[in-house]
């Protein structure tokens, strides 16, 4: 591996990792001695002496209680380096209907694709059509790290001609260091430890089976989660011949006019996940929808030729409305309101937007709501 090229790639990775983090103390501390820090990190990588530092563990409660492991800033640079080298080539091995953490293929793309599959299978709702939705129980906490490493190395070796032997050898080394790391070892815990008592065991890495679990919050975890479940995607498309199939992280669906066919898939998927990936279906979330009556997916509720905000998303917005009523900074009010209005603007929700936001008092003191093309926007008064 050429040292000069690696140092240049690390510099790019540093700026990628610094995006939206310029005011964070850890970023400023690393940037204060940028050249020396990058050169030291470069030497560790070349000499194969690099070892990740302890992560910081904490809980977040939006939209629900989750455990997050934040990598040291130095390690985030390495994550971006690895991602910059590999993501473009690995993503080419994914199916088109894999939506999460891929540029241009986010939640709205996933919703569009589900609607497309329903329209195709039902012939524009002229035939009865069903959607089988399935979920994986405690996905990130039950990813077997050694199995993930084997799958990742196999994919990288298939792409050998794109990397070259020197870079491939380096990526194999980094894959081992990143994937096999147990983030709970020596981690720094922040917050009230009593709060962990309210976290279900299947949602915590501290309760994961031996050798299992990826830290939620790492860039590489997002990439590796797709690499791991690409095995399921290929099985669904190639072996089970599911034409209308899609997946967002661990939430996946199949669309078909044959309800019995969808029912027959459930035990086969359950067996594949257990035997090949050591994962379990979330039995409480296996459900078959009649597409004409509505399908809940990625924050949207799809009905024939229209889509609505689903109830959990709407509940979260309603829960936070009092924060705006007690806010005194006009710019903060504008940011919050336009964030919610932007979310709701993707759905058939004009009447709902008026009902929720127009009766509010505080926003009218600093600005007004403007409606354009059946969408509301909040603008501040001119100074």
UniProtKB/TrEMBL annotation:
Tell me which domain of life the UniProt entry assigns to the organism this sequence originates from.
Answer: Bacteria
Entry keyword DNA damage: no
Q: Which GO terms describe its molecular function?
A: RNA-directed DNA polymerase activity
The protein depicted here goes by the name RNA-directed DNA polymerase
Sorted UniProt keywords: Nucleotidyltransferase, RNA-directed DNA polymerase, Transferase
Identify the PANTHER family for this entry. Answer: NUCLEAR INTRON MATURASE 1, MITOCHONDRIAL-RELATED, PROTEIN YKFC
Regarding protein family, the annotation reads: Belongs to the bacterial reverse transcriptase family.
Per the UniProt record, the source organism is Pseudoprevotella muciniphila
Q: Where are the transmembrane segments?
A: none
Q: Which Pfam families match?
A: RVT_1 (PF00078)
- Residue ranges annotated for the Reverse transcriptase domain, each copy included: 1-302
């Amino acid at each position: 591996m050429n040292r000069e090229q690696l140092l240049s790639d690390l510099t790019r990775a540093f700026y990628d990792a610094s995006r939206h983090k310029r005011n964070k103390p850890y970023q400023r501390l690393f940037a204060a001695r940028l050249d020396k820090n990058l050169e030291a990190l470069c030497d560790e990588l070349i000499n194969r002496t690099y070892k990740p530092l302890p992560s910081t563990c904490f809980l977040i409660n939006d939209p629900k209680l989750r455990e997050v492991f934040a990598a040291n800033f130095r390690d985030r640079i390495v994550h971006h380096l690895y991602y910059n080298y590999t993501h473009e080539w690995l993503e080419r091995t994914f199916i088109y209907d894999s939506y999460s953490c891929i540029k241009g293929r986010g939640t709205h793309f996933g919703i569009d694709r589900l609607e497309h599959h329903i329209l195709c299978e039902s012939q524009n709702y002229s035939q009865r059509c069903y959607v089988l939705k399935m979920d994986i129980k405690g996905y990130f906490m039950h990813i077997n790290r050694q199995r993930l490493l084997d799958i990742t190395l196999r994919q990288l070796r298939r792409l050998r001609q794109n990397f070259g032997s020197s870079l491939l050898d380096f990526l194999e080394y980094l894959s081992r260091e990143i994937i096999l790391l147990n983030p709970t070892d020596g981690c720094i815990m922040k917050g009230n430890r009593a709060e962990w008592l309210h976290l279900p065991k299947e949602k915590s890495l501290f309760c994961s089976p031996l050798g299992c679990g990826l830290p939620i919050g790492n860039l590489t975890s997002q990439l590796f989660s797709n690499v791991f479940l690409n095995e399921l995607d290929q099985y669904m498309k190639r072996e089970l011949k599911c034409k209308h199939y899609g997946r967002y992280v661990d939430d996946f669906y199949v669309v078909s006019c044959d309800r019995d066919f969808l029912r027959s898939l459930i035990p086969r998927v359950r067996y594949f996940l257990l035997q090949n990936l050591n994962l379990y279906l979330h039995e409480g979330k296996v459900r078959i929808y009649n597409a004409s009556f509505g399908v809940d997916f990625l924050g949207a509720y799809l009905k024939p030729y229209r889509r609505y905000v689903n109830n959990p998303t709407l509940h979260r917005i309603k829960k936070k409305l009092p924060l705006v009523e007690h806010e005194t900074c006009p710019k903060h009010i504008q940011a919050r309101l336009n964030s919610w209005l932007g979310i709701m603007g993707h759905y058939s929700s004009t009447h709902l937007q008026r009902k929720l936001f127009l009766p509010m008092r505080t926003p009218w003191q600093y600005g007004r709501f403007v409606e354009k093309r059946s969408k509301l926007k909040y603008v501040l008064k001119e100074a």
